[in-house]
Design a protein that fits this description.
Blueprint: H1 3-23, H2 27-37, H3 43-68, H4 73-93, H5 99-119, H6 134-154, H7 159-171, H8 175-199, H9 205-229, H10 231-254
Length: about 260
């Protein structure tokens, strides 16, 4: 790769780390950059290298949030452990399932997420602890730790966004605490998928490690901005990311 291509990839990694730290969806920036700037590589190499960069950013963001926000460790730890195994399972199945089958379904889910955020303006703005029943806590472990984690290993776009919505809807968290909690599970999904890709020999380590360092820079900036500006800021970024994801998937499916 030329120096200009590497610099653009590193810049994309900073931006992806910022978006991921605020509300998830950094793969919307980082994965296309890998595919466009190094077109000769296999798709699996781009997916694997994206995970290497992402795990550094999400782990860094999780640490930053843990210092100032309120991640729910009673939910995040068991869900995160499940996520490692389930994301690995998704990565193993990635070659067997056509993404063309999943993309229309994902678009419908993302549109539903956008509708919920728009038409329920109170969602994620203030905590609603009354929602925390035993069944909802169990669902908040299983849905992110199993279903969303498997999806992240299988395909990936919007995983962090889905996690944030799951915690706000199921446990009544505000967007900042939901983002803090989601980073722990997202680190687990990235670890599980990365382990599979590494064993299969797909990771471009030199490029990926540089992107990982830049992800950390972006993640620290994003996490501190989300904490300082609050739930309203995260909600606005969430809507922008969901819109961008829908447009991207729609273009890939129908463009």
């Amino acid at each position: 790769m030329h120096a200009e291509q590497v610099l653009l990839l590193l810049a994309a990694a900073v931006a992806a780390g910022w978006v991921d730290a605020v509300v998830g969806g950094g793969g919307l920036i980082q994965l296309p950059a890998l595919l466009l700037l190094n077109p000769g590589q296999p798709v699996a190499a781009a997916l694997a290298t994206n995970k290497l960069g992402s795990i550094a950013g999400t782990t860094s963001a999780a640490v930053a949030y843990a210092r100032k926000a309120k991640p729910d460790l009673r939910v995040a730890v068991p869900a995160g452990l499940l996520a490692v195994a389930c994301a690995a399972g998704g990565a193993l199945c990635a070659a067997a399932i056509s993404s063309d089958v999943l993309k229309p379904l994902i678009m419908v889910v993302l549109l539903a997420v956008a509708a919920i955020v728009v038409f329920r303006p109170d969602l994620g703005r203030v905590p609603r602890p009354a929602l925390r029943t035993r069944r909802r806590v169990a669902a908040a472990v299983l849905v992110p730790g199993v279903a969303i984690a498997f999806y992240d290993g299988l395909l990936g776009p919007g995983t962090g966004t889905f996690l944030v919505i799951a915690f706000t809807a199921l446990l009544g968290m505000d967007f900042v605490d939901a983002s803090a909690t989601s980073k722990i599970i997202n680190a687990g999904t990235n670890l599980g998928a990365l382990a599979v890709f590494a064993v299969q020999g797909h990771v471009l380590w030199a490029v990926g490690l540089g992107m990982a360092a830049c992800n950390i820079v972006g993640a620290q900036l994003g996490a501190h901005m989300a904490i300082s500006r609050g739930a309203g800021f995260v909600r606005a970024v969430l809507l922008c990311v969901v819109t961008a994801l829908v447009l991207k998937l729609g273009y890939e499916q129908f463009g």
